[in-house]
Design a protein that fits this description.
The protein is α+β, with helices and mostly antiparallel strands and about 230 residues long. It contains six helices and eleven strands. It folds into three domains: about 30 residues, no CATH class; about 60 residues, 3-Layer(bba) Sandwich (FAD/NAD(P)-binding domain), CATH 3.50.50.60; about 100 residues, 2-Layer Sandwich (Enolase-like, domain 1). The chain binds flavin-adenine dinucleotide.
């Protein structure tokens, strides 16, 4: 849907096509793709994932995998050394396993917990949540938590609304009667309620069947469950 949206605005999309070569030919910059296509470019922007800049910690004894390993209190394996934010592989909200979830709300939450504990407190993180909010030439898409869902054997179920004609898409994923993940396209109103439902892990009870029948009612479900409980 996003592809059709940007193509409609004159943007060519090449999928499954890595850049194998960049070369200056005269005044032209040429990008060669793994598909063999050659593109003349004015500007090349590389945006390929997130990698913590932690080379300076080599030899420090700090436990590092893809990022600095921390526990729920943001403690590293070294005494009195804490870490927070993009440099960390903090414990994930859903899996409890170390993950790089390098976004601003997680960095803020982790920094608050690290600061509290460094000052003698005893704060624990609920775990970092995967959140993406993207504006693609005016088309807003979001994903929260375990947007890909979990298998039936883990109590997984889901519902998908596809309305390509109006540029709208919504997917809700549940474990038993708890919302664990969501994806949306073309939705701007109340999408924060999706995060709220996931993060509070509010049991949806009868609201789940209503959402399976009509996923657009997530705001009413939030008001009727998570916010009510709060
Ligand atoms: C292009 C882009 C778009 C993004 N969009 C979003 C978004 O829409 N929503 C969202 O939630 N997040 C977004 N993020 C991620 C967000 O910016 C980060 O999660 C957040 O800034 C992390 O905060 P931080 O303090 O951990 O790291 P940073 O903000 O990276 O701060 C780290 C600081 O440490 C400094 N530093 C590095 N090495 C050293 C050293 N050896 N000694 C001293 N200082 C050092 C750096 O210069 C930097 O100032 C985006 C990031 C990028 C790059």
């Amino acid at each position: 849907m996003i592809r059709h949206w940007v193509e409609g605005k004159g943007v060519a999309v090449h999928l499954n096509a890595g850049v194998t070569r960049l070369a200056q030919r005269g005044a032209e910059l040429h990008a060669t793709l793994s598909t063999g296509t050659d593109i003349v470019a004015d500007l090349v922007i590389c945006a390929a994932g997130v990698k913590p800049c932690i080379g300076f910690l080599e030899g420090s004894g700090m436990k590092i995998e893809r990022g600095i390993r921390v526990d729920a209190r943001m403690r590293t394996n070294l005494p009195d050394v804490y870490a927070a934010g993009d440099v960390t592989e903090a414990l994930d909200f859903h899996t409890g396993r170390p993950e790089l979830n390098a976004i601003q709300p997680n960095a803020v939450d982790q920094a608050r917990i690290a600061a509290h504990n460094m000052a003698g407190g005893n704060a624990e993180s609920q775990g970092s949540l995967a959140i993406n909010v993207l504006d693609t030439l005016g088309l807003i898409s979001t994903s929260f938590g375990q947007w890909q869902g979990v298998g039936k054997e883990q109590g997984g179920s889901g519902v998908e609304l596809v309305d390509e004609a109006n540029g709208r898409y919504l997917s809700l994923q549940f474990r038993d009667d708890v919302l664990i993940g969501a994806t949306s396209i073309g939705w701007t109103d109340h999408v924060g309620a999706l995060r709220g439902l996931i993060q509070t892990q509010a049991p949806l009870g009868g609201w789940k069947d209503r959402l399976l029948a009509d996923p657009t009612g997530f705001m009413a479900a939030y008001l009727g469950t998570a916010q009510k409980a709060a």
